[in-house]
Amino acid sequence: MPPAHGSGEEVDWDTAEAQLGTRLPADYHAFMAVYGGGNIGGQLSILLPLPVDSVWSGGTIAGETPNLRHYWEEEGGLAGTDFGADAVMAWGVGCSSPDLLGWLMTGPDPDRWPVVVWRRHVSWDEPSLALFDCGMAEFVRRLLLAEFDRCPLSDLSLWGRIEPFVHWREQDRRFLAGLDPITGEPDPTAEMF
To answer: Which end of the chain has fewer beta carbons closer than 10 Å to its terminal beta carbon, N or C?
Structure first.
């Protein structure tokens, strides 16, 4: 997944982590350094650590974490754990379902936090919350290469498919030019904005 469309993020990690009240995993730092915030294949937004001045930003950790915590509470948490809703923090949002992806903050070392996914659409006999014993970057890699036993998200749009990553700055540029922010193709609805 080459970072072809405006890559990397200049992040003031001290400020970001102070505002979020915790250190963030090293793989998330590395992902931000290589890719930044943006979208994979129009199906998965990787959240920014801090707000940016953008017309098309995919959102922030602080902006989506309350949604993940809401669903954690609604589901009664993850079966077999006793973590409260304050132990989850969002890092991604599925675009078509939309699922919420985050970390389960199981202790003081963020590099050991597993990924938790709240899936909007599951069969009646499956829990909406699922835990994956890997970090954020490994989760994305395994999703795109179909290396889980089954797709961890509600839909199969990214399952086993390497899709382009589009940085939020490129999404802004495209949107302001009247193009689809994800594909870069002419957007017939652009005149409505």
So the answer is: C
Question: What's the whole-model pTM score?
Answer: 0.90
Tokens of 167: 């940085």
Q: What is the pLDDT along the chain (193 residues), one digit of tens a residue?
A: 777 665 778 899 999 999 999 999 999 999 999 999 998 988 999 999 988 887 766 689 999 999 999 999 999 998 888 999 999 999 999 876 689 999 999 999 999 999 999 988 666 567 789 999 999 999 999 999 999 999 999 888 899 999 889 888 888 888 888 888 888 888 777 665 5
Strand order in the sheet with 44-46: 129-132, 115-118, 100-104, 88-94, 44-46, 38-40, 165-167
Distance CA 110, CA 146 (A): 25
The CA-atom distances, in angstroms, between 141 and each of 12, 23, 64, 106, 162 are: 26, 22, 22, 22, 9
Q: With CA atoms as reference, report the closest residue to 164 among 5, 41, 46.
A: 41
**CA–CA separation, 150 vs 53, rounded Å?**
37
Which structural domains are found in the chain, ordered by start?
13-192 (3.40.1580)
Which residue bears the tokens 């080459």?
A: 2
